[in-house]
Amino acid sequence: MRIKHILTDKIFWIVFSLIISLSIIYLSLMETDKLPSVSIPYIDKYVHFIEYAVFFASWFMYFYFALRKSFYHTFIFSFLISVFFGIIIEILQDRLTTHRSFDYGDILFNSLGALFSGIVLFILYTISKKKPGK
Question: With 70 as the cut, is the pLDDT of residue 44 above it?
């Protein structure tokens, strides 16, 4: 299968995006003693950053290719979804678990991960539009 076909395949992106979303929900609500112990300072913030960078990118790709919205509308919509999803997860951690709590730092790193992913996609989009023949 050609890469271009995969990049524009809306079924692939919706399935991938749902898997990422469900994985984040599961990992965010599971008991922390089931997670491996790592002694890297602020590792949880790095994980949040990466999770939401992937979350943003996957939903962006779905909305951009499946719904055929403009790059800028898709960017803003995907970013807002990422931020609100992260806030909802933090609220659920606080309300539904006894082993997790609400953390503004997590929301910050979720948002920064989504923003970073968006910036990378914007750079790639800008480069692709400058190529001759586009």
Answer: yes
